[in-house]
Design a protein that fits this description.
heterodimer; A: 6-stranded antiparallel sheet; 5-stranded mixed beta barrel; 9 helices; B: 473 residues; alpha+beta; 6-stranded mixed sheet; globular
């Protein structure tokens, strides 16, 4: 999507920044296009067409730093914008830790943007009628009289971005995404229950929109008659669809920004065994054909496969150039690109097998709000799901809360499945934990 | 500068674009032009070491056929690009297969008072940026002077000015100038080997006069307030109990538990738990719940909503009876009522949908917060919150409590923190037992995330609710 003319324009923007007084600069041009068809009760409800183009600039001016963006990209507007940005940067304090990354750490193998094979040419041939057919054919509105509302949304998009800096770094990433999500509301016994399901892929042929309606309906029907279970300690099995909620706070706590600001429950954790042997968390950013894979981070630094937590030992903080300078540590990458939890205690476990092994407990299939304290790791989430006994689902539960502390939770890890959904940005499988507090 | 000049279009072109949008048979077309400049300054580790400036400019074009929507936008306002967007949006007319709802109507009735709800007395653009830097430094110095346990302070000043212009197929041309200033402060404290955090914020639709001694003192005092209790706080034993919600930020209860379910799109689609409840009693007499776009300088204030409808005050619950949903033009047409000025959007990139503004409950007759606490044998008092969520169909809502106290035999005892509370909207409304006379509308940086991010506000007097489920150990 990004044309040679636009690439030249990005280089020119860097020159403009230097001419205006910046010693160094980084420019990121992002171009995207999206078409969307939303349906309501099996009929087209909304069609939208979006096309975006914006330029972000990181400016390093007399030892000072500022970040800027604009979508007014005609030469005259951009020139004035950059002059104003350079002047604004001079207003803030000097910070010698603000530097561009060492070019030796930066990505050199993302030249066309499609090295990972994430651009599907099928998108180019899609017509408005094709998009409507995909959205409408996925509808299950007429299949069950209990359905009172079905909202579906199909979209396809292409995203193209290029990062350049005044040290000569230049890397590009292009990616298509085909998405379908549907929310179904049913009525039963005077009560309403809703279920949501979605799928996404960088390949149109791999999108299974038709299955989403059935799955969403199954989830709504499964909640009929739900009520809280008695408060107490239960084995918790977290469905793979929701399990990343147990991992994201760990990744945030390992961010250099959190560590440097003491805003983390994983302070001074590098090299320490803070988690059980069963937890191995990798960053696998370069898997060809998999959505969310990427060769470089927002600074243009090359990503690489690396253990984040290995057999319970913390192996990596996410430290960008700025934090590395501030903390006097070796830089890594800005963030995990594609976190992956490895199966444990053995490969091949799915949700059914994990339920069978756990015997009795609460299967969490959805979260309803809640939060965690980044400093202490304490969390409390609303949940819905199922009570299970002898490995089998007994009845649905809702209006319950799951409360605890992430370090204590992970210390009681029972199993990690082998059933992560590839459409998700984090590859987290079904997880099981012992003795979790539930309130109802 | 006239809005029409800012965007470089003529009235003749506006009419031509509407005609282009309606070419395939659409019923309604509206245009939303936006020019936003957003600035931020970040204080960390004692220095204001980074700043930002972001420009967002463009025009969104919507075409309606019945209740069906076609939407497209352009990031420029040259006529050719806009015409192309109008054509793309207009294609909905050819695809709509089943149409419901009545014709959209004019909504230019006056708000009652014609004054600007959020004048920019001191312009942000061109204001003294060095003064802002010093202001942030004074916030940190003030916080450190009041509590020796302070380890880290992060303070962010952000301010934006949006100029919007709207035109529709009725020929109504409206414009709005929307300043917004926000400050948020995060503090990390250390006591012995324990650390705790506290986050406070203030956000108002006003110009650079926002940078004031009043705001500084408010943020500094709240940033260090209650930290002794925070270090002592524990998780309570979880389960169902009475909850006294302190005045102000507890308005998140109304936003999550009731406000979303009153948004007319959820009701039009049959998804809300309040669908078909119009005119029915849903809580005890004397309770009034409203959504107000007319509070001067509030984050939820709207001179006009994003469909050009004048800002107004909407009673959703009057004396305990459901009296109105929150409408955009589509739902108003469907229900045959006037739009309520709730058609809002994140930016020109999004079509407007029914959204809250400042949602609050009016003061009640049941005395003071202390009276409510004294009436509870065993329960919990909560006063600071982080976030909330609701499941529209089921009505199950949650909100995350940053701090509060156990209530035992009518008195506040052990401090508590970091717990989620869950309940069911209609049941919680029915379980409101007492409403104090101390309504307060919170001025924090509340942002609602229903499909799009929109600035809102919320408020409530102290209320006593029986039987909410509190997370615990």
């Amino acid at each position: 999507m990004i044309t040679d003319k636009e690439l030249a324009f990005v280089r020119e923007a860097l020159q403009m920044a230097q001419a205006a007084g910046a010693q160094h600069a980084r420019a990121t041009l992002s171009v995207s296009e999206e078409d969307l068809v939303a349906t309501l009760d099996g009929e087209v409800d909304r069609v939208t067409h979006c096309a975006d183009r914006s330029l972000s600039l990181a400016l390093f001016v007399d030892g000072r730093y500022g970040s800027y963006s604009t979508n007014k990209l005609d030469r005259e507007s951009l020139s004035g914008f950059i002059r104003q940005a350079v002047d604004a940067t001079r207003m803030v304090a000097e910070d010698p830790c603000r530097t561009l990354p060492d070019p030796a750490r930066c990505c050199t193998d993302a030249l066309t943007g499609d090295e990972l094979g994430l651009v599907d040419p099928a998108r180019l041939s899609l017509t408005p009628a094709d998009r409507q057919n995909i959205a409408l054919s996925a509808s299950v509105f007429s299949s069950d009289k209990r359905i009172i509302s079905e909202e579906g949304e199909y979209s396809d998009s292409v995203y193209d971005s290029v990062v350049m800096d005044t040290n000569g770094v230049c890397c590009r990433h292009s990616e298509c995404s085909f998405d379908y999500g549907v929310e179904i509301t049913i009525e039963s016994g005077g009560q309403k229950y809703s279920g949501y399901w979605w799928d996404a892929s960088s390949r149109l042929a791999e999108l299974d929109a038709a299955a989403c309606g059935r799955k969403a309906l199954e989830r709504a029907v499964g909640q009929i008659g739900s009520k809280p279970a008695r408060s107490g300690r239960y084995t918790a099995v977290i469905d793979a669809e929701m399990a990343s909620k147990m991992v994201s706070p760990l990744l945030r706590a390992l961010s250099g920004y959190s560590i440097q600001q003491h805003n983390s429950f994983l302070m001074d954790s590098l090299g320490k065994q803070l988690f059980p042997e069963g937890l191995t968390l990798l960053d696998v950013p370069r898997i060809p054909g998999q959505t969310c894979s990427k060769y470089f981070d927002s600074e243009g630094v090359a990503t690489r496969e690396a253990p984040v937590i290995e057999r319970g030992v913390v192996r990596e903080y996410f430290i960008n150039t700025y934090m590395a300078n501030k903390m006097q540590m070796a830089p890594t990458v800005e963030d995990a690109t594609r976190a992956k939890v490895l199966p444990w205690p053995e490969p091949g476990l799915d949700r059914a097998e994990i339920l069978r092994r756990c015997g009795r407990g609460i299967l969490v299939t959805d979260f309803n709000g809640g939060n965690s304290n980044p400093v202490t790791g304490d969390f409390s989430y609303g949940i819905e799901g199922y009570l299970f006994e002898n490995g089998r689902i007994v009845r649905p539960v809702s209006e319950m809360l799951m409360t605890g502390n992430f370090l204590a939770l992970w210390a009681r890890l029972i199993a990690a499945g082998d059933d992560a959904r590839p459409c998700q940005s984090k590859l987290v499988p079904t997880l099981a934990f012992a003795e979790v507090d539930f309130s109802g | 500068m006239r809005s029409i000049d800012r965007f470089g279009v003529t009235e003749e072109q506006l009419r031509a674009l509407v005609a282009e949008g309606l070419r395939d048979g659409g019923d309604w077309c509206d245009l939303y032009f936006e020019d936003t400049a957003y600035h931020d300054l970040l204080l960390r580790d004692g220095v204001v070491g980074s700043g930002g400036y972001h420009v967002d400019y463009g025009c969104g074009i919507r075409v309606l056929k019945g209740e069906k929507t076609g939407y497209a936008y352009a990031e420029t306002t040259d006529f050719a690009s806009l015409k192309s967007a109008a054509r793309a949006a207009g294609s909905i007319a050819a695809t709509a297969t089943s149409l419901r709802g009545s014709a959209l109507q004019s909504a230019t009735q006056p708000r009652g008072e014609s004054q600007d709800l959020y004048p920019e007395l001191v312009a942000w653009e061109g204001a003294d940026c060095k003064g802002f830097v010093e202001f942030l430094q004074r916030i940190e110095a003030g916080i450190r002077a009041r509590d020796s346990r302070v380890l880290k302070v992060v303070a962010i000043l952000s301010y934006s000015v949006s100029d919007v212009m709207m035109f529709n197929s009725l020929g109504e041309l409206t414009s709005d100038h929307r300043p917004l200033g926000s400050l948020s402060v995060q503090v990390i404290f250390r006591q012995g080997d324990r650390t705790e955090n506290n986050t406070v914020s203030r956000s108002l639709r006003m110009g650079a006069e926002f940078i004031s001694e009043d705001v500084l003192e408010d943020l500094v005092s709240r940033a260090v307030a209650g930290m002794d209790a925070r270090f002592e706080a524990r998780r309570p034993k979880g389960g169902q109990m009475s909850v006294v919600m302190g005045a102000g930020a507890s308005g998140i209860l109304l936003h999550e538990a009731m406000g979303h379910a009153f948004e007319a799109d959820f009701n039009r689609k049959g998804q809300s738990i309040f669908t078909d409840k119009m005119g029915q009693r849903i809580c005890r007499p004397g309770i009034n719940i409203l959504d107000d776009g007319t509070l001067p300088r509030s984050r939820g204030a709207c001179n006009f909503d994003d469909e050009g409808v004048p800002g107004q005050k909407t009673y959703m619950v009057t004396d305990g009876v459901l009296t109105s949903y929150l409408h955009d033009r589509i739902s108003a047409g469907y229900y045959g009522v006037a739009p309520t000025g709730n058609g809002r959007r994140e930016s020109f990139r999004y079509n407007p949908i029914p959204r809250m503004r400042a949602t609050y409950m009016e003061s009640g007759p049941d005395g003071t917060k202390e009276d409510l606490i004294a009436s509870v044998r065993k329960g919990i008092y909560v006063d600071q919150f982080a976030n909330g969520q609701v499941k529209i169909g089921e009505g199950d809502f949650t909100f995350f409590v940053k701090s509060g106290f156990l209530i035992e035999r009518g008195r506040l005892t052990m401090p508590v923190k970091d717990i989620n509370i869950i309940g069911n909207g209609p049941q919680a409304l029915a379980d409101i037992e007492a409403v104090a006379g101390d309504l307060k509308v919170d001025e924090g940086t509340w942002t609602c995330g229903k499909e799009q991010s929109v600035a809102v506000s919320c408020g409530i007097p102290s209320v006593l609710i029986r039987n909410l489920t509190v997370g615990g150990e």
